[in-house]
Design brief:
4 helices; Purple Acid Phosphatase, chain A, domain 2; five-stranded mixed sheet; alpha/beta; 158 residues
Length: 158
């Protein structure tokens, strides 16, 4: 299974996302969606699991939870924006979601891919729609195959 990982679109969905996500089976959005149109556009590519972020209004909060937990290809996945933890980091997320084998989060606008406790893959794809501090816009791709640790990479949108 191939996942497209995206966060912090803030209502903007760069055209390059459609090319990068053209072969994904599922999309995980780590919050700060901005507008429901972003989710509608992503759903033309693959099913979407999205959470709301701290700047999302009622429209997004009405259709998306703060935390989503799902099983994909035998892996327990948790998606959260992470703002409820202040400035989230892989260790605090792991302690909060002990059952998760994969944790996707957003909020910091800083791309991150890290292995925690030798078993949990934590990914922040960075910001696709509102990059900050000179960090280029980015998304993530993750490959899942039962019995093999997840393989993932960060993809700059520039």
């Amino acid at each position: 299974m191939r996942l497209g990982i995206i966060s912090d679109t803030h209502g903007r969905l760069p055209n390059t996302v459609f090319e990068i996500f053209s072969q994904v089976d599922h999309i995980l959005h780590g919050g700060d969606v901005g507008k429901a149109d972003v989710l509608t556009e992503l759903e033309t590519l693959a099913p979407v699991t999205a959470v709301y972020g701290n700047v999302d209004g009622f429209e997004i909060r009405e259709c998306c939870p703060q935390v989503a937990k799902l099983e994909l290809d035998g892996f327990y996945v948790t998606v959260t924006h992470g703002d409820q933890f202040g400035t989230p980091n892989p260790q605090s997320l792991h302690k909060s979601f002990l059952e998760a084998e994969i944790i996707v989060f957003g909020h910091t606008h800083q791309p991150l891919l890290e292995l925690v406790d030798m078993t949990v893959t934590v990914m922040n794809p960075g910001s696709a729609g509102a990059p900050r501090k000179g960090i280029p816009a980015s998304v993530g791709i993750m490959e899942l195959e039962p019995g093999i640790p997840p393989r993932a990479r960060l993809v700059p949108l520039g």
